[in-house]
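quick one before i forget lol
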Amino acid sequence: MASLAYKRLVTRIILVTGDSDFVPAAKLARREGVGIVLDPMWADVHEYLYEHIDGLRSVMDESGKFICEPTKKSARQRRKKKAGS
């Protein structure tokens, strides 16, 4: 996370954890202007981690089913479909 933030390779990081071990990395990334979105996968989140995130979102419900909308098809998938038609 630190390397990605320092090199400005990302604008947002989606962190899948609830562990407070990631607080220093999240704090540093936010100082460097990187947004941190947390997906704890319905696990408990350490209170210190809440202070260093920009958003909280889960992509799965409590039963393990995905709740996100399907993503747009990539250009590669569109070309493949067009070539097959």
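fyi The two ends are 42 Å apart (CA to CA).
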